[in-house]
Automatic annotation (TrEMBL):
UniProt source species: Massilia agrisoli
Record domain Response regulatory: where: 9-125
Span of domain HTH luxR-type: 147-212
Signal peptide: none
InterPro entries named among the record's database cross-references: CheY-like_superfamily (IPR011006), NreC/VraR/RcsB-like_REC (IPR058245), Sig_transdc_resp-reg_C-effctor (IPR016032), Sig_transdc_resp-reg_receiver (IPR001789), Tscrpt_reg_LuxR_C (IPR000792), WalR-like (IPR039420)
Keyword Chaperone: no
Pfam family membership, one: Response_reg
Keyword Hydrolase attributed: no
Protein name according to UniProt: Response regulator transcription factor
4-aspartylphosphate: residues carrying this PTM: 59
Keywords (A to Z) from UniProt: DNA-binding, Phosphoprotein
Length: 216
C-alpha cells in the first residue's frame, strides 16, 4: 500500500453521483486519494485549478451546454501538464480520437473494470498513454481507414456552426446566437454542407449524432 504522501491525488468529474461515488470508492480501495468530486464542467475546471490533482478523471457528457471536452481544452490551455483521463459511456471512434487529439492521456468506458480505470490513472500520472485493448484496436483501424469525421474536416468556426445546424437552428438563429451576419452564416453553412457532403437536415443531424457532437 502506498503511503499518504505517495498516493496519486485524483479529482473525479461526472454528473451521475452514483457512478462517481462508485469509482471514488474503487480508486480509494486501490490506494488512490480522491481529493474532489465535481458535477459540472465548470466545477471540474475550478476544482482542478484549486486542488491541482495529479490526475483528473473527466466524463465527456454532462447535462449542460458544456462538455468534458470543453473543460479539458480550458484546463490544458492554462495547465499544459494536466493529466486527464476521459470516462464515458459513449465510445464513437471520432470521439475517442478527439480526446487524444486535445491532449488526454487515456479513455475508458464507464462499464470498464475499476482496475482498468486505476491502471489508466497510474499511466496518466506517469505521463504515459493508456488504451484499453478494444479502444486501441479501433484507433488503429481509424488510422488505416482515414478520419472522415466533421471534427477532422472543419475548422473551429465551421464545426461550431455545424453543431448548431444539427440541432435544428436556422441560419438566422445561428447568426443571432453567434452575433454574426446572416450572410456570413449562410456562406459558412453552405461550405460546411459541401465539405461534408450532406444537405438535408435529417442527414446533418444523423452525422452529428454518429460522431458524438450532439446527443441522440
Amino acid at each position: 500500500m502506498q503511503s499518504e504522501q505517495n498516493k496519486i491525488r485524483v479529482v473525479l468529474a461526472d454528473d451521475h453521483p452514483i457512478v462517481m461515488t462508485g469509482f471514488a470508492m474503487s480508486l480509494s480501495g486501490l490506494g488512490m486519494d480522491v481529493v474532489g468530486q465535481a458535477r459540472t464542467p465548470d466545477e471540474a475546471a475550478a476544482m482542478y485549478a484549486e486542488l491541482r490533482p495529479d490526475v483528473l478523471v473527466l466524463d465527456i457528457r454532462f447535462g449542460t451546454e458544456l462538455t468534458g471536452l470543453d473543460a479539458a481544452r480550458g484546463i490544458l490551455a492554462k495547465f499544459p501538464a494536466a493529466r486527464i483521463v476521459f470516462l464515458s459511456q459513449f465510445d464513437q471512434d471520432s470521439l475517442i480520437k478527439e480526446t487524444y487529439r486535445i491532449g488526454a492521456r487515456a479513455f475508458v468506458t464507464k462499464d470498464c473494470d475499476p482496475a482498468d480505470l486505476a491502471t489508466a490513472v497510474r499511466h496518466a500520472h506517469a505521463g504515459k498513454l493508456y488504451f484499453l485493448p478494444q479502444i486501441a484496436e479501433r484507433l488503429a483501424n481509424l488510422s488505416v481507414r482515414g478520419d472522415v469525421s466533421p471534427q477532422s474536416q472543419l475548422d473551429a468556426r465551421g464545426l461550431e456552426i455545424f453543431k448548431l445546424m444539427a440541432e435544428g437552428l436556422t441560419n438566422a438563429e445561428i447568426a443571432e446566437k453567434l452575433n454574426l451576419s446572416a450572410k456570413t452564416i449562410s456562406n459558412i453553412s453552405q461550405a460546411v454542407k459541401e465539405k461534408l457532403g450532406v444537405h438535408r437536415q435529417a442527414y446533418i443531424t444523423k452525422l452529428a449524432v454518429k460522431h458524438g457532437l450532439i446527443e441522440p
